[in-house]
C-alpha cells in the first residue's frame, strides 16, 4: 500500500484572503480529485475517503482538500465583510488552479450548492470538468428533518443582528450554536445528524453562509450546465439533514447517475468510504476514457487534414 503523505499549500483568493489546503499524489498527475466540504466542516473531514482513494489507485492521481474561507486553517474575512456564495465560487476557481490533468470535483452536503454556484459564475469552466461526484447533495437549503423547526429559522434571526451595533450578539449566538452541534457530533460520532470538522469556524461567516444557502435555488440554467458533466449522486437512505428525496431531486435535475446506500446517513463519505471511493474511481475511469476518445478523434482529424493536403 502506498504511503499516504500530504503537502500543505496556501493560495491567495481573488480578494487577497489566504486559502489553506492539502495535496497528495504526484505533482503533475494526469488527474486530480478536488473535494468541497460542507458547512461546519473543513478539509480534514475528507481524510477517511482520501486515504481510501489513494490506496485504491496506488497514489497515481492527485487529491486536493481545502478549507473554505472562515473554516479550518483558511483566513477569516474582516468582521464587516459579508461572505457570499459568489465568494466561495471564486475561491473554488482559485483552488482549481492547483489541479493538473482531468479534474473530478467531489462535494458533500451544502458543498453541492457551491458547485452549482461555480457553474453559474463560471459556466464554461464548470462544463470542462471531467466528472462530478455529489454526496448527500441539495439543490436548495437542506430540509433538516432531524432538527426542530426553530433551529432552522434561527439563522435568519441571527442574520438580522449581523449588521450594526448588535453584530457581536449575532457572532456569539452563531458560535454557541456551532459549539452545540460540535459537541453533539463528538458524542454521537457517525450517528450524529450533522457533520462537523475538527476546527471551529468563523461565526460571522457561518451566519452569512446559512443565509446564502437558505436563498439559493438550483435554477434550470445551472442544471443545464451541469448536465454536460458526467455526474454521480450518492444518497444515504437514512440522511436526517438532506433527506433522500431532496438529493434525488437534485440528481434528476442534472441527469446524474444515482446510488442509494442502505443504512447510510449524512456522513456517508466517512462512514462508507469504500462505497464512496468506488464512485470516485468510476468517475475517474469515465474521465480517462473520455480523454482517450478525444485523443483518437484529434488523431483522426490530423490524419484527415494530412490526407487532404497531400491530395
Keywords:
alpha/beta, globular, single chain, 311 residues, eight-stranded mixed β-sheet, Rossmann fold
Characterization of the model:
With about 300 residues, the chain is of the alpha/beta class. The protein has a single domain, classed as 3-Layer(aba) Sandwich (Rossmann fold), CATH 3.40.50.1820. About 45% of the residues lie in helices and about 15% in strands. The chain has eleven helices and eight strands. An eight-stranded mixed beta sheet has the order 1-2-4-3-5-6-7-8, with helices on both faces. Helix 2 crosses helix 3 and helix 3 crosses helix 8. It is globular, with a radius of gyration of 20 Å. This is Alpha/beta hydrolase.
Shape: globular
CATH architecture: 3-Layer(aba) Sandwich
Poorly predicted runs of 5 or more residues: none
Bin the helical content: 40-55%
CATH secondary-structure class: Alpha Beta
Q: Would you tell me which CATH topology applies?
A: Rossmann fold
Radius of gyration: 20 Å
The percent range for strand residues is 15-25%
User: What is the count of DSSP helices, taking H or I runs of 4+ residues?
Assistant: 11
The oligomeric state is single chain
Largest sheet: 8 strands, mixed
Number of domains: 1
Compute the number of strand runs: 8
Secondary-structure content class = alpha/beta
Mean pLDDT: 87
GO molecular function: hydrolase activity
Protein name: Alpha/beta hydrolase
Keywords: Hydrolase
Organism: Nocardia veterana
